[in-house]
Design goal:
Elements: E1 12-16, H1 20-32, E2 36-40, H2 43-52, E3 57-61, H3 69-79, E4 84-90, H4 94-103, E5 107-111, H5 115-148, E6 152-157, E7 162-165, H6 167-173, H7 192-202, E8 212-220, E9 228-239, E10 245-254, H8 256-291, H9 300-330, E11 339-341, H10 343-360, E12 364-368, E13 375-377, H11 379-395, E14 402-410, E15 413-420, H12 454-464, E16 468-474, E17 478-486
Parallel strand pairs: 1-2, 1-3, 3-4, 4-5, 12-14
Antiparallel strand pairs: 6-7, 6-10, 8-9, 9-10, 11-13, 14-15, 15-17, 16-17
Helix pairs in contact: 2-3, 8-9, 9-12, 10-11, 11-12
The structure holds adenosine-5'-diphosphate (ADP).
Amino acid sequence: MALIEDQTYQPKILVIDDEKRIRQGCSKILTKENCLVDTAENGETGLKMIAEKYYDIILTDLMMPGIGGMEVIAKVREQHLDTVVIVITGFATLEHSIEAMKKGAFDFIPKPFTPDQLRVVVSKAVKMTRTLQDIATEKTRLKTLVNYLTGGVLVTDKSKNIILYNPALLRMLGYEGETLDDQPLSALTTDETLTGIIDGILGLNPGEFKVLSAEIEPHEKGERQSDQLYLRAQAVPFQNRSGEILGSVTIIDDITHLKKLDEMKSAFVSMVSHEIRSPLSTILSQIKILMDGLAGELGAKQADILGKISLKVAGLVALSNELLDLSRIEAGLIVQDKQQVQLMDILESLVGFMQTRAKEKNISLSLKRANLPLIKADGKSLEEVFSNLITNAIIYTPEGGKVSVTGKVKGDFVDIAVSDSGYGIASDEIPQIFERFYRVKTQKTRYIIGTGLGLPIVRSIVEAHNGTVKVESKEGVGSTFSVRLPIS
Ligand code: ADP
């Protein structure tokens, strides 16, 4: 069997021994095995050669006049971590060879040795150097990759010491101090959100995997308010083979441009919908004048056309109203006026108001009364929430169906549920229905007119009250939208 399996690899070997016979013997045997061999007749020359050239493997005699093998090992360990040292020694110095191994020698070969014994030891060493070099290459590759990533990278061990980071991270967090290698996380940041998600990851149970993400409190990168930096962090654990958590990896993204874009988009939508709304309302009232015959008698065909136009324009007015609402909610302009409100009163008057609409479709609309505590909320906005949910329940339920509204107290929360026996929503569509403009298109619902803005408005208002909204639904059976609001 060849000493080196990969014939393109030529390990560089240095043999340091004061016995010429050994130097020549080793050189001859190893050169035949495709190694590049240099020799040195003493420790001094050996160290000089090591300082000038990199060797994969060094074979050194332990006992030499002047600088001995121990010193050679110590120097190599200091300068070249991935060089493997093999000690050549006489039988009498077995203890020394054990000591040499403790100092970092990889193996030893007792004198006198046969060519085969030398081949076996060097072959093992070659495998070792290749592994060490692979690890070193992997490390450099990782370091280069991490350094050139535009996102911030932060790796900590289990005790929250920093073991890897990149320049992007330092730039984002505004760190300008000393090197952070092996420093505690607190040397880099005291941001509670960031340390909080890292703590959360390190506190996971063995084998548990979770991604924790959070937006870091924006901080200024310059003097002006517009220079604020918005960052989003995502942390995950890394584990050993048995699932034990060894540390955390956090990626930080600069989302300032997204935030800016979102703000600009909201401002634009708000401006456009505001500008469109009043001319549309004027058009609607003018059409009404025509339809009422106040500008002269209309023929049946003309009235029919105007009726269709007026329906479309009314749809546009509704769309611009909803767009305006949504951009106002997102800008934090609505839900500012919080007072003690009685939710049951709001629900009662809404359900009463919606009865006509329900009756038109022969739908039974009911409210189960319950004693609910007062909650601090913006009554008008909550009215909009439940008006949207009840309207949807009626719209997306076929004739003869049922819609029921219930309210109950659950711990520190009030839960309001709007249930229907309607068309339901496919499970893969559920995550999308709260997105702006998203509408489920099925055979049964394709003719229903809507904007896809009702549920995003519902969610924004509920979240502005620190509440949550969730939906359970089964196609062909019905849906339940549940809103949970905190009592105090
Ligand atoms: P819109 O009703 O204007 O389309 P929404 O945002 O209120 O917009 O709703 C988004 C989509 O969610 C609707 O298009 C509909 O497909 C689905 N949806 C909402 N409520 C219900 C419900 N109660 N039953 C079935 N589908 C519903």
